[in-house]
Protein 1
Amino acid sequence: MFELDAATGQLRWKFDPQVQHNKAFQHMTCRGVSYHATKPGAVTADGATAPGDCPERIFVPTNDGRIFALDAQSGSPCASFGDHGQIDLKEGSEVQTFGFYEGTSPPVVTDKVLIVGGAVIDNYSDKVPSGVIRSFDIYSGRLIWAFDASNPIRTVSSP
């Protein structure tokens, strides 16, 4: 991921998520990123005041099942989001085999929520879980809800 100056073509910043490569990955390309600008007086999904870091965020999904929140001005990970700027989408899931889950598309962004899907490796193994759609607080990365269409018992909502 990088930003170029539109007028000069000079590199402004560069970020490397250190994606591990695996032959099982279906897509080793970026299908897009998502952008969020914090509005004055913004609050989190819990109603708390939005953090001051990263007023403009770029959300980057990776093929190894993570999402990064980057400061749009510097390219640095947003410390207030998840674990120092990233969340592991495999955490809390049945996915144990590297490469069986990957983020393939940019997340949907609202004023408070990030909505994320992903891809599982279908027909590769009988140990592959179903895909789950989840939402996270756009500022903290905290899981808000998860929906598993194939297993409603696993569907969760915020406490």
Protein 2
Amino acid sequence: VLKADWSKATDGLPTFSNNDIMSHLNPIIPLLAEGERVIIVETSTEYTPPFNQNLTGIGGRKFVDIVMTRPRFAPQLCWDGIGCGA
């Protein structure tokens, strides 16, 4: 079972709830030991090509990247002002 200790979003996007994590991220998170934590960073950006789509065949698109890493020097990472889970 996956659960969030905390979630931080920017640019008006919503934070992840535990249900969001189970539905959106569960398929891509590697198998973890019980009680293990990972830091997950999801970034995205809209791309508009500098040239006409008819000329290049490349249209605008949204790039999304999700990166996971284990904390190296502490069992978990806390975000200032949000707090940590149990």
Protein 3
Amino acid sequence: MTCQSLVLTRKTNVLLVRSFTILVLICIVMKPEVCFSSVLSSLKALHLQGYITFENNEFASRDFGNQIHSHPLAVVHPKSVTDISEIVTHVWQMGPASELTVAARGHGHSLQGQAQTRGGVIINMESLQQDQEMQVYYNGVKFPYVDVSAGELWINILHETLRYGLAPKSWTDYLHLTVGGTLSNAGISGQAFRHGPQISNVHQLEVVTGFIGFIAGKGEVLICSQEQNADLFHAVLGGLGQFGIITKARISLERAPKMVNYKYHKSLKDKSVVL
């Protein structure tokens, strides 16, 4: 082989290596774009009773803490629990390669981005209020209770139950929070010393199962309580949404007092000013 042919062979090999490297780099760059396009198309193809928004979702990238800002790919406004189940199942079926995640958002009072997901799907739980009405039960039952949507605000529950002379046993001090949100975070307040936190005053839950930890299920809708699916019941109460999404709750009630004693001192030295 002549020197000239050796030079040509080396040049050819260099060109082949460079071409292969360029192709690999193109594939690496294009793969996320193809994956993103596939995820977007799959979400748009879902047939929900509610609807999905892909634009003007800035509200879902913030929370009360204002520390974390993660913009989602889409926000689901479910009309039914079936919508939530379908979304969770779809995310699971997409697999880890899609890097698609899902998070439930109530009234947006999380502090460190717990109800956010960058490039994922946010489920607006307050949309469920429109499809599920509160039902108060007090006749013919051992203990009074109310069935509520997880997207319902505690202030609305108070107004409804007071019509029957009843009220939940345990509260948070601020009532413009959703049921699902506080039950996922324990729900501790001034009444906890007497009745325990809110998670100790729940008879039953409806949950769309997740796929983390020991809880089986991939978007199933299950009823759980102390007697039925007890592991799931105890996992989701105070579980920060890691084992499933609470969609409905049965809250324990008690007789609401007609009058309460409330003392207010202007200062520690001035006890004469009492309301």
